[in-house]
Structure prediction request, 498 residues.
Amino acid sequence: MNLDNIRIVLVNTSHPGNIGGVARAMKNMGLSRLYLVEPRQFPDEQANWRAASAGDVLDGAVVTSTVEEAISDCQFVVGTSARERRIPWPLLDPRQCAQRMATASGQEQVAVLFGREDRGLTNDELKLCNLHLNVPTAESYSSLNLAMAVQIVCYELRMLEAQAQLPVSEDEQWDTPFATMDNMERFYTHLEQTLVDVEFLDPAAPRQLMSRLRRLYGRVRLDEMELNIMRGILTETQKWVSRGRKAGN
Amino acid sequence: MNLDNIRIVLVNTSHPGNIGGVARAMKNMGLSRLYLVEPRQFPDEQANWRAASAGDVLDGAVVTSTVEEAISDCQFVVGTSARERRIPWPLLDPRQCAQRMATASGQEQVAVLFGREDRGLTNDELKLCNLHLNVPTAESYSSLNLAMAVQIVCYELRMLEAQAQLPVSEDEQWDTPFATMDNMERFYTHLEQTLVDVEFLDPAAPRQLMSRLRRLYGRVRLDEMELNIMRGILTETQKWVSRGRKAGN
Prediction:
């Protein structure tokens, strides 16, 4: 996978603010190659403002007068599309599509085409594409902002890039080792004794109390530092009980 | 999964245009419940313009003066966060996080907090959360636009809705409702006071103790019965402290 081999192509964009938003979305996700096919207005102050710290992406943007020119050296081209089209074409969601693009980008030049704010890509433009991509939306309002659509596609590419380095679960990135079962058993013994001491637990009628507490602390998996905190609290509590008892209570 | 049980909470948003962009992103993905904690300017023309056909989401937005107010009836709260934080908290990517939210949303009220454009959420706000969410970004430019971050999270929820089949998790089959944030805050107050009473916590040098305990109980998500057990233990403990003190120590 090579994000430098994936270009974003915006076709006939009306609002320069969207171009800026696209530039920022790309850079946030590690993409840098922007192509603009006949933008209505570019360069533009509004584009610069929305790009924030992605001005370099705007500066490097390639402006062309046709779609064909923007994709002429590409081996793999994806076109974004609404769901219903007269001519059926392979239509994937952004996740499936990102996988295809990522694979191709290892060796090939890849382009993703995004159409006009109001009308998307024409049928002729869509026919230039190997695949069509559709972002799932709510039926009640399916018209995505252009920069948002680019953000989603770039995000899916980023997720693929990141997955290689990501921890599989939240537990893997924990800073402190989780407690061993041995230490947990010592904790439960200490906890039970303390609950008896404070007379919250009646040994003659323990009911489900310890089961519930075991379930709770088993569910969370205490780390060693948390375990030490809990044991410290129990020890202090027991001291107060023995002071209270000495008082002849 | 019920998207109507998932609210987006924007904290101290500076630019009204972002609020509009968020409203549109939400509606495109099928979400409708927007909460605004002390927005700098709202309602606003720029917000309406960026919202396009999502004016109804803006009209229905609930404005509050504190984060606590916006989440008080929620059982599951997610906070968006940059990757590096001093106290590590369970940190998931948007995909993993959306699965957790989707599952919870079947029965519970769920909130996702998004912070200020320039500074995100404060550490205190992050500590109110059960989980933290981090959108993966390129190292060279990690500062996402606010509405883009909301778009990505809502998109992941939409993808799950589209996939129809949710992963089964242990939370789905839970027998007792999970505690609300209001009740959790009462518990933390009670816990802190008790730890001061038993002299385990020195109010003059509290260090990270309460943070660590909040992280622990936020991670596990106490159900209402467990919460009652914990409060009962604290109450009994406090009685012993006061007996001990009467004994003149």
